[in-house]
## 1
Amino acid sequence: MRIDLNSDLGESFGPWPMGDDAALMTSISSANIACGFHAGDPGAMRATISLAKAHGVAIGAHPGFPDLVGFGRREITASPQEVEDFVLYQVSALTGMAGAQGVRLQHVKPHGALYNMACRDRALADAIARAVAACDQTLILFGLPGSELLKAAERAGLRGAGEVFADRAYERDGSLASRLKPGSVIHDPAAVIERAVRMVRDHQVVAVDGTTITLAADTICLHGDTPGAAALARAVRAGLEAAGIEVRCLGSTGKPAE
């Protein structure tokens, strides 16, 4: 069994730091780098690429809504053409900055509200997939298992990767529980590890109402802005490896956890 372990990084902005990217790099296999719209700036982008390169961590673009104040977690009304344009812009920016350091992007993972909306909205999902394909047909598009994002990836001729969240609660339909709900973010390391192992080994997770959901996990996300994220990532990786699950980036392994 194999799995990719990813985290959202590069989200500092100017003098305001967020997360402990350097510490997280020692545990993850893929980094989703903010591209300046919901968080991050050119300096943070370049520094995060450099960190990932030094640690042998694969990188991907993490495009979001143009919403620095709301950290990209507010739903914004935008046409599919607007979404396609600003995703194309952000992925292109990170592609160029990565190329300047001799690094290629592995994947694209939309951020926050854009991700959640595209997982259920075919038009937005297709707009994102078109933008990604226009940048590089070899890029992997992350999305919730069974979501419109993964269906859009297939329609655009892209490889899709089913992303699961060990530190987030799920609704019975397979969507993520709103962050406004108590318990939507799980902080207990033992619970997160147990969920991660079960997602990979058994392809299952228990929803907030007790329903058991079946899902296909290619990559597990741990949020970099969660307090204690670096320690949690170390514990999750150790727990996965203790269960006989290899942590490795998607680009070098093919689809894991099959």
## 2
Amino acid sequence: MSNPLFATKSLDSLLHEASETGEHSLRRALGSINLVTLGIGAIIGAGIFVITGQAAAQFAGPAIVISFVLAGLACAFAGLCYAEFASLIPVAGSAYTYSYATLGELVAWIIGWDLILEYAFGAATVAVGWSGHLRAFLKDIGWSLPAMPTSDFTVFGRSLHLTYDYIGFLVIAAITAILVVGIKESADFTTGIVILKIAVVLVFIALATAFLLKHHWQPNHWHPFLPPNTGERGQFGWSGVLRGAGVVFFAYIGFDAVSTAAQEARNPKRDMPFGILGSLVICTILYILVSGLLTRLVPYTQLMVPDPVVIGIRATGQHWATFLVELGALAGLASVMLVMLLGQSRVFYSMSRDGLLWPWASKIHARFRTPYLTSIVVGFFVAILAMLVPLSVLDEMTSVGTLLAFVLVCIGVWILRRSHPHLNRPFRTPLVPLVPILGVVFSTTLIVSLSYWTQLRLLVWLIIGLVIYFTYSVRHSHVRRLHREANPLAK
């Protein structure tokens, strides 16, 4: 293209990267089951154990079931587009790489910077939630941890109170160590946790269903199923269902992280679509069942708590199962952190390989074959955030960042179908351009449904990223260098 800002990375170079082997390449160790469990590991976590109840209590009531269906549809359309790209371009980097091949370098940078927001800040937020669950769990069994240190100080005349969550810091440090050791070890760790998580979710579904059947589907807290709007946008009614969909969308974040591991899949052209779509389908079914049963058992007004599923279990009278659910929540949140940090380090790796970030970010460990420096630096940064940032911060920002990535991936599939119609696509998104258009429409609707402050914070984050791009990346970009060599008169 004549404008280097929108120069695209050639498909030939991407496919060459995908076929690389040797000590400077990532280790191909993941099969289809590993990829599905990576997806489930990222998806089933804070969403099902925390956000389900809180979104019902604040925005949608029992109609949170519809919110999950809407969010699942947005993910389904985007997931079909991700599956085509992941099988066609099986390279680490996810939406960043796909945008580079179709929409150009500037858009790719925006998406890469956006994914940093999603994965790094999302992992920090989940780490704080994990810390809170651990303390509650230990308190239930009669143990306690030392109180978190605090400090008060003044900045620009404003008093600040900081709480140092050392548990959040330590759990991120431990997961970072697992990621440095190797992708296969990380995947095996996630697989074990996923088995526990699914077992816990199935236990809740079985106990809740058995209780309701025994009592002739009583209690019934589905009246009204759609609480009337309070007069404020997003507070119940249909606007509340949309706001709820935008919030519970956080619960689906993770299936896109599967695509960041494409360069570590043994047979990515076959296994990537299976991993992406398989994990998405399984988790959507579980979310709908859990949210429906939970709001049937417990009045939605009582679900504004850190552990709504535990409240649901107690409503069945099976108090022994609360121990299991709390363990499942701890395991679920741990695997979400692992996959988010995995995705973050692979996006950094890809951007560094393209010259858009510093060279150290793409260094591969000679023994473990992982981007170890990136994992360590990102892990340390996220651990600091987890220690200092409260749980309520950045959950909607994580959602809005992901939704923006979904929009651009859907557009990218449509553009590539028109610009390269004869490419061999191992997986083809059906009904193009209808499916990509629907993906754009659903994702954009959910972005608009989120709070104005969330949209403003996203804009500020993108401005910071553009400053880095125009001060460093434009001078080191490999694609721009090739563009200058091909166009000597170009500035």
## 3
Amino acid sequence: MKRFPAKLLLFGEYTVINGGSALAIPFSKYSGCWKQQEQSSLIPFFEYLKTLNGCDESLIDQAIKQNWVFASDIPLGYGLGSSGSLSAAAYDAFFTMKTTELLDLKNLLAEIESYFHGKSSGLDPLTSYTNKAVHIEIGQINTIAPSPLPEQLTLYDSGIPRNGKPFIKYYLDRLELDKTFYKIVSTLSKLNKCIIREFVNGEDVSQSFFEISSLQYEFFQNMIPEAVLKDWKRGLDSGQYAMKLSGAGGGGYFLRWDAST
């Protein structure tokens, strides 16, 4: 069966919610695929899919009869798009009228994934379904052939699963009530746009990465576990490496850029 990869949000955390630039890549270390088992826990999800335009109900009924499950090794609560991978697999298996228009595809995948989150941008399942890097900027969507991550860029495992919803709510509430934070987010949005351009063009992102790291350390500490904060500060103080959020934060993976590599 076809496998659907996890995803990493490299740049654009939080500001993408406000229409800012973002870059997500498929992360093939983890993936999921359809399998048959003795019973399925996905029947409510399957029934939800039947309410969406373009879904072939007969294919859903067959999956229910055959006890389809989504076998995935994508860690839950790590910001790696486990529900996005499942949503991409559902579109591939049960929707007969496929589209190649990225915006339409993103919107339909968002409808599918909204079953899990109440609201979805569609970015995670789009990255998983296309198996390409997805770049969003000023409402435009482009896919880019995936390439290996630079040696300087590694994943920092916090060892803490998290639920992104309360962090996103905190961000939105603070953005509405705190004028100073609103200005900080505007600065972060510009930095995200800059670092994405540098990354896509193969330029050195060190300065932008350290600027984002410093800004997030000062103003996004609610999204950074205490143990992670200590390592984060150690890198900034030494200048040897910088860390940043990957997605909502709160746990899961963070990104680290090693300046000495």
